[in-house]
Design goal:
The complex is a heterodimer. Chain A is mainly alpha-helical. Chain A has helices at 2-26, 44-60, 62-72, 102-124, 130-155, 179-195, 206-211, 215-228, 232-243, 259-263, 290-293, 307-321, 324-327, 386-399, 407-423, 436-443, 448-462, 469-482, 485-496, 502-509, 521-526; strands at 35-36, 77-79, 158-159, 176-177, 274-278, 303-305, 342-344, 357-359, 381-385. Chain A has a two-stranded antiparallel ribbon with strand order 2-6. Chain A has a two-stranded antiparallel ribbon with strand order 3-4. In chain B, 11% of the residues lie in helices and 43% in strands. In chain B, helix 7 (302-320) runs antiparallel to helix 8 (326-333) and helix 10 runs antiparallel to helix 11. Chain B is globular. Classes of the chains: A mainly alpha, B mainly beta. Chains A and B meet through helix 1, strand 1, helix 2, helix 4 and helix 7 of A and strand 23, strand 28, strand 32 and strand 33 of B.
Chain lengths: 537, 1111
Amino acid sequence: MKATKYILASTLGLLLLGGTTSCSDYLEVDPENSQIADDYWQTEQDVENVVFGGYYYLRSMVEDELIPWGEVRAGMIYNAKSNTRLQTWQMQATNTSLCDWSTLYKIINIANTVLERADEACQNDATYTESERNSHYTEAYFLRAISYFYLVRNWRDVPLVTTAFADDNVVINVPKTSEDTIITQIKSDILAALETGAAKESFETTWETKGRATKWALYALMADVCLWSEDYENCIKYCDALLNAKVAGAPAFLSSPSRSSYFSMFNPGNSNESIFELQWNYQENQTNNLPIYFDDQLEGKLYQVSGEACTDFVSEYLAIIGEASEDGTNLPESPRTYHSAFYPAGTSGMSMGMSTGYCWKYVGSTTEDKKRTSTYYDPNFIIYRVADIILMEAEAYLLVDGMEPTAAHKLEAVKLINKIRERANLHDNIGADMTEEDMLDEVEIYSQQELLEAVLNERKLEFLGEGKIWYDFLRMGRSNGNRYKQDFLVEQVVKYNEKASESWLRSVLTSDNALFLPIMSTEIERNPNLVQNPYYN
Amino acid sequence: MKKMQSTYSNVKEAVRKGSLFFLLSSLFFISVTAYGQAVITGTVYEDFGGAKEPMMGVNIAVVNSQNRTLTGTITDMDGNYSIKMPQGNDLTLVFSFIGMSAQRFPYKGQKVQNVTMSEDSQQLKEVVVATERVTRSELGVSAKTFTGASQSIKMDDVMESLPVSSVEEALQGQLAGVDILAGGDPGAKGNIRIRGTATLNGSADPLIVINGVPYNTDIADDFDFSTANTEDFADMLSLNPNDIEDIQVLKDAASTALYGTKGANGVLLITTKKGLRGKPKFTFSNKTTVKVEPDPIPMLSGNEYTAYMQDAIWNTANARGLQNAGDLIDMLYSSKSYAIGYQPDWSYFDEYNTNTDWLDGIRKNAVTTDNNFSMSGGGEKATYRFSLGYMNEDGTTKGYGMQRLTSTLNVGYNFSDRLNVSAEFTYSDTKNDQAYLKSEKVRSEAMRKMPNKSPYYIDDATGQPTDIYFTYQDENEFQGAFDGSSHFHPIAMVNDSYNNTNTKEEKITIRPRYRILMDENNAPVLTLEGYISMKFKTVKTRQYLPQEATGVDINSTYSNLSYDGYSNNFLLQSETKLLFNKTWLDGMHNVVAAAIWRTQQSSGSTYATQIYGAATEGMSDPVNGGTIYSSSLNSGTSESRTLSAIGNLNYTFDKWLTLNATWNYEGTSALATDNRWGLFQSYGGALNLQDIEAIHEKTEKWLSQAKIRFSWGQSGQAPTGTSPYVGTYAALSDKYGTVTPVVPNAMQLSKLKWQTAEEWDIGADLAFWNNRIKMTFDYYDKTTKDLLQKGVTVSNISSFSKIAWTNSGEMENKGWEYRIDYEIFKNKNWRVAVDFNINRNENEILELPSNLSQDSYSFKNGQYAQKLLAGTPVGSFFGYHSLGVYQNIEDTYAHDADGNVMRDLEGRPIVMKNGTFTCYPGDAKYQDVNYDGKIDENDIVYIGNSNPVVTGGAGVNVKWKDLSLTMRFHYRLGQKIINQTRMDMEAMYNTDNQSTAVLRRWRSEGDVTDIPRALYKYGMNYLGSDRFVEDCSYIRLQTISLNYRLPKKWCEKIHSTGISVFVTGYDLFTWTDYQGQDPEVTLPSAVTDIAKDQSSTPRSRRFAAGVTVNF
């Protein structure tokens, strides 16, 4: 009897007592199927895994965002399967797939999270040094900077978020911030990364050296951002820092005018010239659709080269081959045309007047007719390579003095342009075979506009399919207060974009606001502080 | 007198618990001194009308002063016994045998004790006492002093006159303030709403409490049986109505406070039957029900359909201009027109030239049988009740049915007057059979199916249908290919596909009770009691979709699809309760207080897999092969825990004034530390005017009760799921390089908190002339703040597209309830009684949650606008005001606000446009609200609301001797609904078959009709307008039942203690103007969805007959 009483009384007592001390523990239930954020940051590997999430997301954007955004508005490459509103210049806020910035903000959140919490792992993991942590910081800064750079280039003014969305106390409904502020933020991120001194020149493996943010990638991005923001002196500074790097293993221009050397940038990829490229690897089951999208013989073909762009490639090809093509033996090398950057549709070969072609960079296995087989559908996507830096610097030299570049700067620019052309095995270059002094006089003949156009022409042929040309049109068109908008933007788009009528293009391109994307309609609905971009409201 | 009453009720309480022993022990107050180790012997006899015979098997127990058994034995063949007496004072010998009254002899050292047992004459009396006991809550508060709004019904009373097969059925229309809508499919879950819906995203279902233990119905919150519909099962289904003693509904916050936050939507307290001391009693009942479905909407025959389709296609071709309508002309005249043109050469010509009533092929009349058996009884120490029930319900849609086995065992054991332990075991096994798709899908497919198509191949030789399904259903077929939910063979679907769910539920509850202190009347003063309850529930779902039902390609993921899903849930609940009940100064002051500590832990796991391309139905188990459909693979676990400390204080002054306070301090694992614990308070008071001496004297003759109640209380609701507030990371399935990335997956929700409601309730209970008229009235006003919003989409800037939960918005429900019971006439042979209840609930959004958009509408046929505005109730419809049909050219001219025809610059009249379509005679005419000559979004007006103005029920009971006639009515008045079925059947837009109403369609000028012309995929002739919004008010004769209790004499001949037989008709008559099949349309599960009638199985007319036999 008594025993029962005691048992009951003590059970009650225990429950009540236990209640006050361990209730909160009892109510702490950990979800089994996912990793709890607060318990996560334990080791160096934990930090690294999150950093890699940023690269992963950036890579996930290549097929459906980075390529269309960078290409189809310009029209040198267009989507042949469906005439998207992006390429017909009829974007609406409801075309969700083409104006969705969510992945970029995911990368930004990852970067913010690493910057806020990597130190926790540093505290928990004795083997995780501060410099390793700083190295991760530099990658996070790079990822955040490049994401914002894509955002400003596509939407101009966007919300600026620099704190991680760790919990719901962080304000989600952030309003837009001006392009200038975003650019300032990007630059300060890159500078912060460089200041740590922990940015790596190389990683243990090649794929990491090319597929993660190195010091070189930071320089390249900085040069690009400076060029975009008309900060030409700094652009030249960072281009030089990269081009003049004397460190072993630093990215280096593949100057040999040979097709095989040139093509090695795309297959197998991760070449010396590469600065930052997004990695796929069939051995890790990472493949992509680019070899399908760019192959005109497959059902899934998507991206076609427009007629005018074909003409550009054929012209270059013929300029190199010249009369030699008549007998067909011992043809000179044409590194960036036939079966290299470009290949003609059908079986007709390269001839004047052909109107369709495809980008061979992602399709080819070699510079011959061989394609990648489906096992090897893993071409990388290059974001920066040395040729890009060379042309950036040329552009910067031409613009650094304002409307009228000095002869010395023109000369620097021409030398840089020639570097690119020489590798393409082109010989009719400005000041070819001249002494430096003669060249100095020679370049005076050319106006700023003519030389800029030369830069642009190289960019068109050099970076076909690499998701750049639209930003080049836009950047050059906007430089010097829209001075060259008509020539470098409007006329270029009108020339290449065959998916929209000329009158429509001319009318839509007059609006500077139409050059940027609308904010996706659901974003406007969910965030009352967000105002639709002008032109779309 | 007053004191007597109190003791009396305690006694009755004791009797109910089966401890008559306690009563007897209080009569013998004997002091016994201690003796040494002695042995006592004797013989026990049975009294046979004076003759004594030795009796074997009699229990002999030696008990102490608290009636706790110290030792015991039983008599042998000759009735002899011997027992070694233990040490101790105050020992008593107790002789007992089932059916005999126990005999007690104080032990005073005697060596021999002979006993003569006799039959228990008190037994019958006890039963009477038990059934008329005063209802007392778990805290020992009587109904009279209860300050909250509640109502209870006794199940036996219901079952006697109205044999029902589910709890929902029993409650519908019975209780004021409880609105129940029941579905027509076997096992379909009904909507139960107590005082309206006070949440936008959380569950709106009331809490069900069985014998004090909350009945948790969660499976796993984050589990989504993508195609299964586990939620469709009635929550209370596994409970057999025959096992229920009574059901009490607690409505206001003050009365639900005791059950913590889970009771925020109201509480249904269910008490099950227990064993009673006495001879074993056996009850057997059988009920057989025949279901007859109401007539369906008449549909076009094959020939009428062909003519209509040709008309529609031709009209569109004309409207588009013949030069632009090559595809349509092809449909009529080329080889593509196989199905609708006249092409006798075509191989399937026969199959497309029949008159098929598809709906008829999937309907049937159905029979339900329900058998129940129970036995109960008990002896000195123990009581028991066992029941077994088996119900086999057949659905009126073929392929739908349910079988349910329930069994319960209740045992109680009195260790002593102070210590009692009881245990309940229940097991239920429910099999629910459905076709692969829900019945409304199958029914709507059967309705829309082209009636000129034959269900079976037609033998070319005989012209007669064969028994092979004609499944031609690819994209070239006139109505198109299977898309996952429509375009299938409805007959093959109901016959050969299945979606079978087997739910097994086991529950064990152990409840000890110890009376620590008793007063001089042996009434408990301080009691410690509690329970531990374990429930294990498993749900197994098997689905199979044969290729012949869909006609899909063999490589399709729907081809011979087979799904296997399993979920289990374990629920552990405990309660420790300290009860205090004391009365001072001759009943002037009474205090009832309780301290309760509750824990609840629920965990579950789920798994699902799906294959396609199974070889045959027999080989459809996913383990037998086929191709695994990877996106269907699913598994998960869930766990949630709750703790609560509840204090309750109830003070009664001089029987007529009661004040009550409850505090509930509750913590949940679903909220982050800072917001985890919530304090919810409630206060109430009750005034029993009739007990005030001065009033009592004057009104004694006619006033039985005049009670005024008021209460105010808070209640809370927590989000569901396994720690939904926790921020998480997840590893991605792909790598970058050689590293598996980990990315943020869910945001930490530090701000997430309890949804809280505050409710006022003022009520009165009146009774006159010895309770011949009883009335209850309540007014309430409930405001719910910080409404829980689930799965809220947020800006992508956050990198999360959704947040699991947020608190946002405010809502109000206010209303009143009234119920009257009137016993009109009563004498020896006759009794006539009626009851009536009426309820009104008004819902209003006070503050719109930030995530809900005010409007969601796209200008499309068949679309209604949803507008959620602060200050309006949920459930409003917005759309166009239909004005019929344009009769002629003049009619189509647009008019300005003054009624003049609008003209363009050249003076020509402007013709109305429906959207971009210029109106022609025969097109639907809508009101041009803004007089701009164009029907568009700007012409949308308010056209109704799905909330009823009043709901309620009424009953009539007439008794003559042993014959009783009962009628129950259920009504819902003043609500509207979108008759989606009729819209689909009259839209005349695509290839769907239409109702015969379209035979009245406009064909040429001069036709006076309200049905527009037929157009094939063209025009705006069925915009979401009030044309399809119907008043679905109804009054329904829910049940009419005739019950006859056979005369005692007859029963005795077969040794029965009672036999009754009944015949009952269910839903025989419905008074309504609604044009759909059934006005009782279940509401959408998401509160913010628009209420639509989507041709779910209508409630059938049911006829039942049954018999109940007692032994």
